[in-house]
Amino acid sequence: MSVRRVATLLRRELLQGPKSFILLWSVVLPVVMSLVLSLVFGTLFNDKPKLGIADEDSSGLVTLVQDSPSVITREYGSVSDLEQAVKTGAVDFGIVLPEDFDSLVTEGQPVEITAYVWGESLAKHRVIAQVTLLDLVRKLSGREAPVDITVNTLGDEASIPWSDRLLPLMVLMAVFIGGMFLPATSLVTEKQKRTLEALTVTPTTLREVFLAKGILGFVISLAMGLIILALNQAFGGQPDLLVLMLALGAVMAAELGLILGAFAKDMSSLFAVWKSGGILLFGPAIIYLFPEIPQWIGQIFPTYYLVEPVVRISQQGGGWSDIATHLFVLVGLDVLLVAAVVLAGKKMRRVMA
Amino acid sequence: MNLAGIRALVAKDFTLFFRNRFFALITPLALIVYIGLYFVMPRSVDETMDIGVYAPGWSAVVDDIQQQGLRIHVAESVDELKDGVTDHDYVAGIVLPADLAEKLASGEKPRIDLYVASDVTEEAKEAVASLMREMIYALSGQPLAVEFSTEVLPGPDTVGEQIPPRDRMRPLFAVFLIVFETFGMATLITEEIEHRTIQALLVTPVSVKDLFAAKGFTGITLAFGQGALFMAFVGGLNDQPAIIILALLLAALLVTGIGFFIASLAKDMMSVLAWGLLALVILVIPAMGIMFPGVITGWAMVIPSYYVVDTVDRVANYGSDWPDIWQNLLILVAFSVAFLLVGMVALRRRFQ
Known about the structure:
Strand order of the largest sheet of chain B: 2-1-3-4
Oligomer: heterodimer
Strand content of chain B: 5-15%
Radius of gyration of chain A: 28 Å
Strand content of chain A: 5-15%
Structural class of chain B: alpha/beta
Largest interface: A-B, 85 and 88 residues
Helix content of chain B: 55-70%
Distance between the termini of chain A: 20 Å
Number of helices of chain A: 13
Order of helices and strands of chain B: HHEHEHEHEHEHHHHHHHHH
Number of helices of chain B: 15
Helix content of chain A: 55-70%
């Protein structure tokens, strides 16, 4: 094996890379998906009732509701806008605050609030919205609660916010989209254009070609993983361990990409595999999104051994002792995949011959 | 039209498709994965909040708290209440002291202990605390002079009959399976162009029309077949199967037209990928509106796939019938025919 030839091949990949749609896709897609997923899941999968308010005056209740952690509040300029929002399900519960609402409440005068309820809103959301509103109206009226409520917390498990639950999915996307696709598409393109045969009649060996493409996949994969962690401010207390885990994950991605590229006849086959095989890669991240699914299922998937240490380090302050087992399993998987890459290369050489 | 030629071309495309071990294995595998994902998801919606109460001598209070949206569990002791909280049997546990009434009557401020598990969200804690305060206000004879005049929009009220998330996702899965065939269709044609077999074909008695018919038939069969099989397995054809099948068939026609158009633009497989991805993202947007109500507004109606997901959603999840969705189907026919014509014209220009 010639290091110089590998470097030449890698330089060629890097020079041609920016012209490739796949490289752009590998870099842009994880970042865009990270932003979109944060927006979609961070706000929409939040299990809080959404309360809409159309205020015909300038009631102090609006500010109180906006400050309340129990509901997500949206203010509407007119009753018809509020009605439309309730009809489409943009809010679960919508209220119209009449003129002089604050003074009527302070004076203890009877007030009728027109409320619209979205037909598909959950019963518990309706209760929470109403009770929260009543509680805040009392606060607005300046009455002191007749009771002291002491909150006692039991256990030591912490609730996992959606932004945290999404991290594994984002990391996996960042690591695997570029890491897998760049080597795979590059190999398939070379096969289709028959440039691979041309290369291998020179002193360049197939092993060197694989290595150059694998290194490119590894570099992009690791870089994207780091970028996504930086965007999500999720380096935790042990960034060196995190980088090590990402590097091992990037090796896995590049190896899978090479195997896929060696076996796929054309781009259609490649994307057909991605269409269904993607679920096997992202399985642990999807399971992590829904804590009600038994979490042991995630361990069946190889990418679990990348995701779990990343979560432990970045979100739970974990260290070496918490991730050592996962790290060794991941190293083992990477070694197994090296063997698979070698076999794939041999098969490819036979086909080319 | 040369029917024998079309038949031969279709047979060739299917033979090539299933001779490719990847396609032969992956196509059914994709279906199995989507069906499996559907069945793994929860089959019901829990729309109540569970609260535990330990209230010695206060059974009337417990009855007062019972209402739609709340499920009250009565504990026999504080320890049992705490166990219920830590075991996540309920969101919160409330201890109402035996001397609550006396203290309220004497103007004293009683203390109520609220137990919550450490992983309970802040909003849930706050909501239960608000609920308790309201209940005590009522007990102490200080009702609020505020009344809600409530109207359910747009109706009907589905409390107690919520649509499970997996059923909400059925249109998304079906549309995704069909729309992905845009790639398949465009690939089928681009491969012929790349390998120059299209020129070879066109010097035989096969005409451009025959070629379109054959490719169109293959694309529609692949797209429609996957969507319809998925819907059949997940119970999406239980109500009004004719409407669902027609909607899926029109969707397959639509993606075939889009596939033709992409093939007319694409220089190679990478271009197919780039344009196909753009089409995929746009066509999937309306399905997001079904999953996340209120996210997208009227503008989504300019996207043709809106009429597929809306029809499938309304028929499969809400029991809509022909009179409710005929307009959707009509618009879908118009979009499908228009895209098919545009695609064919664009592709014909490229061949010539």
